[in-house]
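for the recovery benchmark. tokens below, seq after
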């Protein structure tokens, strides 16, 4: 089968023929229909984040189950599914408390077993246990969520990361309350989902902050009530617009400077939610006095702070009911052969989300 392989950070992905093993008893084989391009993969491609190589990246995929291992229950060939890196063991302390996205003992193949993906016998690393930039995947049975009928695959792919991460941080992480004020720093694929989830949560004011006017215009279409051009004055503008700061500020870029801005935008009792993935080793510095005397919170959200197997079908239903915008997130649909061009467009900030369609 064809897959996009990262052979060296800083180099384009190579489209190659690779082999797939399985499924084994606790696994499923999925024919990929669509796979989204995410910034997290891009950080690995350019060397900002470490990754074992060679690797098949891609962790935002939707498709149809082709085969099911003998120990897998509740799934069958033909089921439409979304895959997610938040696969889980189901028995550790985090899983037992409902935080499957924080699983301490993610199930992996025994070291004695062959790699799920290989090339002429050479093991290939499967990012997040998935490897969605390929025509097919073999994944653990607890790495997929079933979709309701009528869900288009290109839109569904986004649910596995961009939508799950952004909407989950709002609805399940910060638990934004109706009538509150929200600032969103960064209006790419994840940030736009923060914007629309804040709208769904009932926020009365949603302020979008970005460097690009076209992204700010898109944020308005997703529910932003106000827009601010990013820069050194962004904090002062947000504070002035809200007469003292926002109840919730979401950082969706991954820069220490914008994380600090999110903190400084808060009113008393506010919450700064950090979503963006920064460079390995980066640190955040914030002033102590506002942190103490304004009684604010600084939180992070991992994969939307959500048990994905329950939340993804809920998000799909939001889409089918017309309250969640997904088609509007997709800037371009491309074949696997154009994946490097797709990431180049992302790096230039020209797209909200590109989706590889098989």
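predicted aa per position
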């Amino acid at each position: 089968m064809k897959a996009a392989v990262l052979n060296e950070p800083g180099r384009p992905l190579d489209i190659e023929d690779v082999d797939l093993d399985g499924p084994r008893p606790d696994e499923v084989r999925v024919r990929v229909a669509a796979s989204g391009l995410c910034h997290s993969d891009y950080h690995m491609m350019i060397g900002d984040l470490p990754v074992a190589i060679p690797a098949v990246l891609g962790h935002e995929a939707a498709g149809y189950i082709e085969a099911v291992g003998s120990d897998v229950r509740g799934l069958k060939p033909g089921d439409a599914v979304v895959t997610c890196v938040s696969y889980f063991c189901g028995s550790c302390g985090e899983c037992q408390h409902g935080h499957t996205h924080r699983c301490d003992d993610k199930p992996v193949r025994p070291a004695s077993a062959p790699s799920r993906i290989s090339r002429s016998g050479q093991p290939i690393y499967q990012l997040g246990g998935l490897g969605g930039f390929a025509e097919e995947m073999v994944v653990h049975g607890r790495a997929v969520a079933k979709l309701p009928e009528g869900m288009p695959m290109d839109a569904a792919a986004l649910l596995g990361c961009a939508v799950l991460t952004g909407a989950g941080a709002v609805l399940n992480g910060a638990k934004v309350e109706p009538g509150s004020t929200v600032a969103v720093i960064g209006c790419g694929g994840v940030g736009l989902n923060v914007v629309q989830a804040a709208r769904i949560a009932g926020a009365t004011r949603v302020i979008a902050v970005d460097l690009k006017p076209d992204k700010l215009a898109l944020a308005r279409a997703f529910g932003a009530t106000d827009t601010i051009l990013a820069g050194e004055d962004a904090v002062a503008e947000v504070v002035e617009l809200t007469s003292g700061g926002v109840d919730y500020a979401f950082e969706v870029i991954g820069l220490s400077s914008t994380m600090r801005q999110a903190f400084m935008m808060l009113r008393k009792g506010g919450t700064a939610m950090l979503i963006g993935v920064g460079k390995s080793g980066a640190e955040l510095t914030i002033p102590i006095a506002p942190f103490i005397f304004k009684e604010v919170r600084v939180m992070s959200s991992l994969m939307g702070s959500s048990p994905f197997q329950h939340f993804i079908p809920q998000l799909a239903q939001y889409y089918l009911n017309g309250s969640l915008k997904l088609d509007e997130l997709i800037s371009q649909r491309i074949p696997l052969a154009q994946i490097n061009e797709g990431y180049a467009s992302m790096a230039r900030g020209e797209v909200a989300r590109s989706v590889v369609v098989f």
